[in-house]
Amino acid sequence: MFYRTADPLPLPRDPFTAIVSPRPIAWITTRGADGRMNLAPYSFFNAVAYTPPQVVVSSVGDKPDRMQGKDTLSHILETGSFCINIAGYEDREALNQSSANYGADVDEAALLGLATAECQVIDCPRLAQAPAALECRLTQIVPLDGAANRLVIARVEAVHLRDDCLQDGRFDVTRYRPLTRLGYSDFGAVDQVFRMKRPQV
């Protein structure tokens, strides 16, 4: 099969996110200028540089109760900081529930009974039991083609690792089985890891 993305879709559902998968999920906590907290998952997310460590998150869509973007983007624009929490398989139900379109005044972490703790470098909460959390400071927001598509670029200022996920000095993802986003309504979890050394030429 071949089709141009500008033409009518020849399939019942768009396969784009199933093709570009698995994708890591940024479970983002923010605090707005008014002190309200927000928690939401973003699957257009990845690491893009080592030194300094940097990440990107794409925000798509708007909310009627926000001037620009959704609650997460609004908070980031207001404060310049956010925390990316990494979710494991045990977090799947809470992560999915936090994706609902709650009002701007709803604290999803409190609603779902998820404990939070303060970040150390930025003024933002994090999920206390997350296997890992990245304290991030906004560096720029890039408008993308399409309505309400924006790329958030940030520098990672600090890292939290849950002690039970460390094994012989390595962060062992099999200890918590990171959630990944696939296409449609599908998710995955990393259950198997293998190593291959980069070849020398």
UniProtKB/TrEMBL annotation:
InterPro entries listed in its UniProt record: Flavin_Rdtase-like_dom (IPR002563), Split_barrel_FMN-bd (IPR012349)
Gene3D superfamilies: Electron Transport, Fmn-binding Protein, Chain A (2.30.110.10)
Any GO molecular function: FMN binding
Flavin reductase like domain mapped to chain residues: 20-173
Domain of life, source organism: Bacteria
PANTHER family cross-referenced by the UniProt entry: BLR2425 PROTEIN, FLAVIN REDUCTASE LIKE DOMAIN-CONTAINING PROTEIN
Name recorded for this polypeptide: Flavin reductase family protein
Organism expressing this protein natively: Paracoccus shanxieyensis
UniProt lineage: Bacteria, Pseudomonadati, Pseudomonadota, Alphaproteobacteria, Rhodobacterales
